[in-house]
Design goal:
Largest sheet of chain B: 5 strands, parallel
CATH architecture of chain B: 3-Layer(aba) Sandwich
Largest interface: A-C, 39 and 38 residues
Helix content of chain C: 40-55%
CATH class of the largest domain in chain C: Alpha Beta
Strand order of the largest sheet of chain C: 5-12-11-15-13-14
Distance between the termini of chain B: 37 Å
Structural class of chain B: alpha/beta
Number of domains of chain C: 5
Chains: A alpha+beta, B alpha/beta, C alpha/beta
Number of helices of chain C: 25
CATH topology of chain B: Rossmann fold
CATH superfamily of the largest domain in chain C: NADH-ubiquinone oxidoreductase 51kDa subunit
Helix content of chain B: 25-40%
CATH architecture of the largest domain in chain C: 3-Layer(aba) Sandwich
Oligomer: heterotrimer
Shape of chain B: elongated
Distance between the termini of chain C: 66 Å
Number of strands of chain B: 7
Strand content of chain C: 5-15%
Shape of chain C: globular
CATH topology of the largest domain in chain C: Rossmann fold
Strand order of the largest sheet of chain B: 2-1-3-5-7
Radius of gyration of chain C: 25 Å
Order of helices and strands of chain B: EHHEEEHEHHEEH
Chain lengths: ~240, ~180, ~600
């Protein structure tokens, strides 16, 4: 007998071991997320995928699906609060989209568009973290890091390396590089590594590839992130 | 004429790109002119902002003059709108926030390459720079935000016609972009 | 250094789980964690350097740049402030000629603030190289200054500087009748494991850390282990590795009862842990002791040794076939490690970042094995219950809160210290006993708890009404509520682990927004913005820290809305930063001071 949960009133099936995010994606339901990619161990830190399960806030990417759960996702309250959480990410770093090579292809930006975020709402922190352009093919602007750990996980889980880690506490959290100098050039990172491509923002960029796709043809110019996410991540969930 | 909506515009720490984009509404400007008249704006060279319905502010706040102009707008406009990336989060000018102001000024006026007669300009006519470039919502209360670098002509058109027609302004997905 | 670290790694069996222990030694020896040390330890423990760097960055007591040979830290708890902390640290800074947060040029001494050190009944307090200093006053500081300037080793400092008192004021059910070492274990073996667990169930004992989970359920769940093991036969289940952890990371500001329990009732606490081990079948226990209680460590080690000698710990306990031992692990300055899954991460030698749950520690805890984590007081109570029976305990208290609660009472009262009350006792009774008068309000359960006003003193100590892990801070009418809230809000921003967005960014924004309002720069909408932010942090944070970080603001905003409103200006908006101050650099460099070189914080004619 198949087991079911409901999301916003719609009944969907799930299999044992699936999270609510897994079940939702399999049923073509998008729940906003930034730190989650189906290929990697869920992290649960960005909190954009917060949903209400039987009245309680839970993180969809880590919370197991269990028979009979009534899940709310697209309520006005959750949409508004997801927008505020996204605004927190924008003010915490320096996200000057016009000056960022990732613009148009950036998941942080796309989630913000999806949530109809028109301003940053909160007071800016304007951090001044160092840039690392030491590597021949890859550069890091630490001011755009949202600490999702996707690069950490991709490096460990896919590339079989251990290039990145997150260090520090509270608002002083920061990305660190596993080399004696602390610089990217002294690691074994290759431009072909998945870790070099997985950043949902413009924090980790491949050099000499910026602005190659004209405006109008970029990933999120016409498609919303919900559609893109379901198209590109759905099949990975099915694996 | 007396019933026309008065709109004022200005550019603070911006590049006038948002104004250029506004002009890109092209022939719709004639339609707009039937409902709208302009107060202070670089379009007409009126120098001070008097009672207006809508104030459109391009650019962030980088110096003391920006603060005075912004306050004049806030005082005289019923609705104040942050227009474009710089007004909303400081934008490209705020890239200088990484660098201490002292270093910026030294590089530009004292020890930079090609500087002759090094000195920091000190004429009282010149506005002083703030230590950081700020978005305008951190200095005065802002009612609406139009993102984009620049916001497209359609954003201006949609926003203003919504307001003129008495609708709550809203932007569809295609019109929301930050670049 | 190389040999020192080599030996250290060997002593610690090259185990990555012992990373905190190793780093504590390195910090103590070199007054920081040098880069070469990180490289060497990474090689010896076979872990990445980034794991070590992240741990060094995470814990307040580790430093990547040198601190003084004498590292002085002054407790920044609200209770220390009420006892004159600010003038003490200013005086220290002046006498020692070192700024707060800095190392003196000669490298001899450094001075800084630290979160509550748990000496709230005998502050202002501090730490020197990790050892607790109490009752700091000017004569003591003069003395300390001389000792430091003469570079006298700590073991030659006068003992009275390090004297920590118990101040047990009201012992009843538990504190009045400590058990004889071994008595609870004898009762266990006589009665049997499941029968003893039944007594604990009968007693209604709930976790004393504050959350109040039923102790017997937790033990039972841990015994059952993960679902996939539930179908194994009983023998296989007994083979399952399980762990017992005593949470003595007593970091909630205003709480110090665990310090007293470990100082004077350590046998009983360890016996409670051993009891639990006997019931659920664990072989290894840990006492996770907060770094601030370093002074207790040697004494606790000797209690453990005594117990081993007496056959109460180790192999074949009381010749009944139970094998169990306890290791002490010291924290390194991180409030978040009081959260049970963060504590387990810390025990494993990592940053104290709370895990995603489920799975819960009872099924997947330390090293992925079923683990019971209980508070010091919980283990102590369990030991008494094993001897006296469940009914004995359940006859005291209220319907949903059985037994007694041990309180750490401090602040504005004439007899601060440790008090034990039956659940259901009214706040007024407590106030009468501790000598509190002219009371404005009380912070119950520490910053993460509730602030109650003087109209609520008929409320009761109980999970049904006012739950508390033990912190009870009294404020008299001379105190300013916003100062208190400000102290707590800064505390949470400092202690947030930074894992999740709402807490990492939210607690920092709360701090900014509250500073703005308290600083008199708030305007009409600023309290609404504050409240909205509070709800966001509370509702969306990953763990208890974030979910309670807004409580100081929310509970006082609810009771004293006018207090916040009165700070607001009657204008539409004021910047949250100092406008004129933002011109300072440009003014100085342009050498200007004319009227045009200044900005008013708000427009002159907007001020009504």
């Amino acid at each position: 007998m198949s087991k079911n949960i409901t999301i916003d009133g719609k009944t969907i099936p799930f299999e044992d071991g699936q999270t609510i995010m897994d079940a939702a994606m399999a049923a073509d339901i998008y729940i906003p997320h930034l730190c989650h990619q189906p290929e990697f161990t869920p992290h649960g830190s960005c909190k954009l995928c917060t949903i209400k399960v039987n009245g309680r806030n839970c993180t969809a990417c880590t919370f197991p699906a269990m028979a009979g759960q009534e899940v709310l996702s697209e309520t006005q309250e959750l949409i508004d609060d997801r927008k505020k959480i996204t605004q927190m990410l924008f003010v915490e770093g320096n996200h000057f989209c016009p000056a960022c090579e990732k613009t148009g292809n950036c998941q942080l930006q796309a989630v913000a568009y999806h949530l109809n975020m028109l301003d940053d709402h909160f007071t800016h922190f304007y951090p001044s973290r160092e840039m690392d352009a030491s590597h021949a093919d890859v550069m890091i602007d630490h001011n755009r890091c949202i600490f999702c750990t996707l690069c950490v996980r991709a490096s460990q889980q896919k590339d079989g390396k251990d290039v990145f880690a997150i260090s520090g506490r509270g608002i002083n959290r920061h990305l660190i590089i596993n080399s004696e100098s602390g610089l990217l050039k002294d690691t074994d990172l290759d431009a072909t590594d998945q870790a070099a491509h997985i950043c949902p923002t413009g924090a980790i960029l491949i050099k000499r590839t910026g602005y190659q796709v004209p405006i109008g043809e970029r990933i999120y110019d016409h498609k919303e992130i919900d559609q893109v996410s379901l198209e590109t991540e759905h099949h990975q969930h099915g694996e | 004429m007396a019933n026309k909506i008065r709109v004022a515009t200005t550019s603070l720490a911006g590049c006038f790109g948002c104004h250029m984009s506004f002009l890109d509404i092209d022939e719709r400007m004639l339609q707009l002119a039937e409902a709208v008249e302009f107060g202070r704006s670089p379009i007409n060279d009126i120098e001070h902002c008097t009672d207006c319905d809508i104030g459109l502010i391009e650019g962030g706040v980088c110096n003391s003059e920006n603060v005075h102009v912004l306050r004049e707008f806030r005082k005289n406009c019923k609705i104040l709108v942050a227009v474009g990336a710089c007004a909303i989060n400081g934008g490209v000018p705020a890239l200088r926030n990484y660098i201490p102001l002292e270093e910026c000024l030294s590089e530009a006026y004292l020890d930079g390459i090609g500087v002759e007669n090094p000195q920091i300009p000190s004429d009282p006519e010149l506005p002083l720079l703030l230590d950081k470039v700020r978005p305008i919502h951190e200095v005065v209360k802002i009612d609406y935000f139009l993102p984009g670098c620049p916001p497209s002509a359609d954003v201006f058109w949609k926003f203003l016609t919504d307001l003129i027609d008495g609708r709550e302004p809203s932007l569809p997905y295609e019109l929301v972009h930050y670049d | 250094m190389k040999q020192f670290i080599q030996d250290l790694a060997e002593t610690n069996r090259y185990q990555a789980t012992n990373l905190l222990r190793i780093l504590r030694e390195v910090q103590a020896r070199f007054h920081y964690i040098p880069e070469e040390a990180i490289e060497q330890i990474a090689g010896l423990l076979n872990i990445s350097r980034t794991q070590i760097i992240s741990v060094v960055d995470f814990y307040s007591f580790f430093h990547s740049t040198p601190r003084g040979q004498y590292e002085l830290l002054i407790s920044d708890s609200i209770t220390d402030h009420m006892l004159g902390k600010q003038s003490i640290i200013d005086y220290l800074s002046d006498k020692l000629n070192v700024a707060v947060g800095e190392v003196r040029e000669d490298g001899v001494v450094s001075l800084d603030n630290t979160s509550c050190t748990g000496m709230c009944d005998q502050g202002p307090a501090g730490l020197v190289n990790g050892y607790a200093l109490t009752r700091l006053d000017r004569p003591r500081i003069d003395q300390i200054t001389d000792l430091i300037n003469q570079q006298k080793p700590l073991d030659q400092w006068p003992a009275e500087l390090f004297l920590v008192e118990d101040n047990i004021r009201r012992p009843t059910l538990l504190l009045d009748q400590p058990i004889q070492p071994g008595a609870a274990l004898k009762a266990l073996f006589e009665r049997g494991g499941s029968e003893t667990l039944a007594e604990i169930t009968q007693s209604g004992l709930r976790g004393r850390g504050g959350a109040g989970y039923h102790t017997a359920w937790k033990w039972h769940l841990c015994y059952e282990g993960p679902e996939e093991d539930a179908f194994c036969d009983i023998d296989a289940q007994k083979q399952q590795q399980r762990y017992i952890v005593c949470n003595a990371d007593e970091g909630e500001p205003g709480t110090f009862k665990d310090r007293v329990l470990l100082n004077s009732y350590a046998h009983q606490v360890f016996e409670g842990m051993t009891l639990c081990a006997g019931i659920i079948g664990a072989q290894q226990g840990f006492l996770y002791l907060r770094g601030e209680y370093l002074h207790l460590c040697d004494k606790l080690q000797s209690v453990l040794e005594e117990r081993r000698q007496a056959g109460l710990l180790g192999n074949n306990i009381l010749k009944e076939g139970l094998n169990f031992d306890i290791e002490i692990c010291l924290g390194a300055g991180a409030y978040i490690c009081g959260e049970e899954s963060a504590l387990i991460e810390s025990l494993e030698g990592k940053m104290g970042i709370p895990r995603n749950r489920p799975p819960y520690p009872v099924t997947q805890g330390y090293l992925g094995k079923p683990t019971v984590v209980n508070n010091v007081e919980t283990f102590m109570a369990a030991a008494s219950i094993a001897i006296n029976g469940g009914d004995w305990f359940a006859s005291v208290g209220t319907e949903k809160s059985k037994g007694t609660k041990i309180l750490s009472i401090c602040g504005d009262c004439s007899r601060p210290g440790i008090y034990e009350y039956p659940f259901g006792t009214s706040i007024q009774t407590v106030l009468n006993d501790c000598g509190a008068s002219d009371v404005l309000g009380i912070q119950i359960g520490g910053p993460s708890g509730t602030f109650i006003s003087n109209h609520e003193f008929d409320r009761k100590l109980a999970f049904e009404d006012l739950a508390t892990g033990g912190s009870f801070i009294v404020f008299n009418k001379s105190r300013n509520i916003l100062d208190i809230v400000n102290n707590f809000t800064h505390f949470f921003a400092h202690e947030s682990c930074g894992f999740c967005t709402p807490c990492r960014v939210g607690t920092a924004l709360l701090k900014k927004q509250l500073d703005k309002i308290i600083g008199g720069h708030g305007s009409a909408g600023d309290v609404v913005v504050l409240e909205e932010l509070c709800q966001l942090v509370k509702s969306y944070s990953h763990c208890g820290l974030g979910q309670t970080a807004a409580n100081p603001i929310l509970t006082t905003l609810e009771r004293y809305p006018d207090l916040y409103q009165s700070r607001l200006k009657e204008i539409s908006y004021e910047p949250g930063f100092d406008l004129d101050g933002a011109l300072e650099t440009a003014r100085r460099m342009a050498n200007r001071n004319d009227a045009g070189a200044h900005l008013a914080q708000i427009e002159a004619n907007e001020h009504e």
